[in-house]
Amino acid sequence: MTTHPSPTPTPFATGTDRSAELVRFDHVTKRFGDHVVLDDLDFAVAPRRHVTLIGPSGSGKTTILRLLMTLLRPDEGTITVDGDLLTHERRGGRLVPAGERHVRAVRRKIGMVFQQFNLFPNMRVLRNITEAPVHVLGRDRDEAEQRARELLELVGLSDKVDAYPGQLSGGQQQRVAIARALAMEPRVLLLDEVTSALDPELVAGVLDLLRDVARSTDVTMVCVTHEMSFARDVSDTVLMFDQGRVIESGPPEKIFTDPEQPRTREFLSAVL
Ligand code: ADP
After folding, report:
1. Helix (H) or strand (E) segment spanning residue 62
2. How many angstroms from the chain centroid is the CA of residue 131?
3. What's the CA-to-centroid distance between 37 and ligand 1, angstroms?
4. Rounded to whole angstroms, how far apart are CA atoms 53 and 40?
5. Which among 93, 120, 131, 148 is least buried, having the fewest CB atoms inside 10 angstroms?
6. Hey, which family's this protein in (predicted)?
């Protein structure tokens, strides 16, 4: 157990109604050896909110996404997604660490877009998008293709249905990756530095798309970014991390113009 006092949980969800929270970290601690990366962390994200995690390198932001993707497990604490515990399950009335099958079922509620797109290079665009809905969700192929075409329209790539990823620009590949993530109908979309591998002239288009996605879908977004313009433009809540804890949170207009914590001011003056 950590000896530090826990900060008050950040109340992004309305009131204290936990059913109104889509993602919740309760007393989550993650260590690598002696290094405490997340320190008794509490936070919650309400449905349809678009939350950006900012803070210095090494403050634990990516670790949060990796915990949500179940690439890591916390040493202490629980993580809940859409009312289901991701980290634990009930067996015989007892709460035990989640088994693989339970983890897979809860993880289906979570989509992820990576910095490096991670498309399947040997599959055409349409197939990149339909593969998981067909094979993981068991969707009918025609239905999955119909939905993929709608998503390609949403991301402005209707004319690239038959292209291979290698024939697309980085910005276009990232649009396909966003469509692919949305095809799984996630409740939560995790975005990890999604514009940082793009040429500068392609960044604005992907940001515009994410703003559209934020407006036109019900998806809850949790983003990690170094780009403050991204945090300002796409999110409605910004969480400032320092040393594995949330030290400040609020709407971007408040955090970027009138932060309360000296550490936030210092960080922003270094990056803006
Ligand atoms: P951020 O995304 O805020 O830059 P990270 O979550 O990537 O921070 O990392 C937080 C800290 O955890 C860093 O000090 C990093 O070196 C450490 N860390 C991350 N992953 C590992 C790992 N697999 N093994 C050891 N240390 C790690």
Report:
1. helix 61-68
2. 21
3. 7
4. 17
5. 93
6. Belongs to the ABC transporter superfamily.
The separation between CA 61 and the C-alpha centre of its own chain, rounded to angstroms, equals: 10
Q: Looking at ligand 1, which atom is closest to the CA of residue 244?
A: 10
User: 242: CA distance to ligand 1 center in Å?
Assistant: 13
Cβ contacts of residue 235 below 8 Å, gap of 6+?
50, 51, 52, 221, 223, 252
Identify the bridge partners of residue 189 per DSSP, sorted by sequence position: 111, 221
Ligand 1 cavity residues, CB under 6 Å: 32, 37, 55, 57-63
Please report, for the chain, the start and end positions of each structural domain, with discontinuous segments joined by +: 117-185
CA dist list (Å): 108 to 51, 105, 226, 237, 244: 20, 6, 27, 24, 26
Q: Which of 30, 35, 37 to mutate to test the pocket of ligand 1 (most atoms within 8 A of CB)?
A: 37
Q: Which of 26, 5, 2, 7 is nearest to 241 (CA)?
A: 7
pLDDT tens profile 157-207: 999 999 999 999 999 999 999 999 999 999 999 999 998 888 888 888 888
Judge whether residue 75 has pLDDT over 70: yes
